[in-house]
Amino acid sequence: GALSGGQKCRLCLAAALYRKPHLLLLDEPTNHLDLEAVLWLERYLTEEFSGTLVVVSHDRHFLNQVVTDVVHFHANALTAYRGDVDSFQATREEHRQRQIRQRETQEAQKEHLQKYIDLHSQAGENGPKAARQRKSRMKKLEKAGMAAAGEGRRYKVSYDGEVADVEEFQEDEAVTLSFPDPGGFDGPILRLEEAPFSYPGGPPLLQDVDLSVGIRSRVGMLGRNGRGKSTLLKLLTGTLAPDAGAARADPRARVAYLAQHQLEQLDPDA
Length: 270
Known about the structure:
Elements: H1 5-18, E1 23-27, H2 35-48, E2 52-56, H3 60-66, E3 69-74, E4 77-82, H4 85-122, H5 128-142, H6 144-149, E5 190-197, E6 206-213, H7 229-237, E7 246-249
Parallel strand pairs: 1-2
Antiparallel strand pairs: 3-4, 5-6, 5-7
């Protein structure tokens, strides 16, 4: 029969590891693996694999187990950090707090110097001494960014050269999601009643399933790859029909389905 998404991922991973590569590049390796396979992969990469590993993943726990360095993509730049993801986040937060303090110090210095220059100009003090004082303050204003960047240390710089200001820290873009109230339901939203299923020409995959999903349900499905987890979701959503029994859905319910291979849900003619 056809292989499931997880089984295909296992097969591709086995083929890559069988070559005993010096450099192993993994792009989202845990996406379709079951828990048992993910734990095995963690152990293999940390205890047996001796080559160089480059991995792209959004699985925080997996990354914390297998990586020694993190490269962060942010603001059109790459920044390298030593340690795992937890260490990266702690170090980045330290950098963030320091940059915010430096920026505040710089802006306070600029505001104070500019206020002094403006007050003397408005007062009409244009004698040689006042002019020298304003010029001195203007030079200090030009180098305020360098002073802040040095965290209080003095730098001898040319007033004609470029001065590096402390830039404002670029926070991560916030994502806000708003969901409409789905309303209330008296009974289950989705229900399977004594529903077996097998693919054509294949052995029975699911036997006499009785399952109800209610408005407050939060159900996690665990099991080895190829055991029918994705198939069960397709039965619940009506993508597949059971061989017997019944699959029922409340007609008032709006059901959203994110497939394991989302490409299956895209309309190529759209």
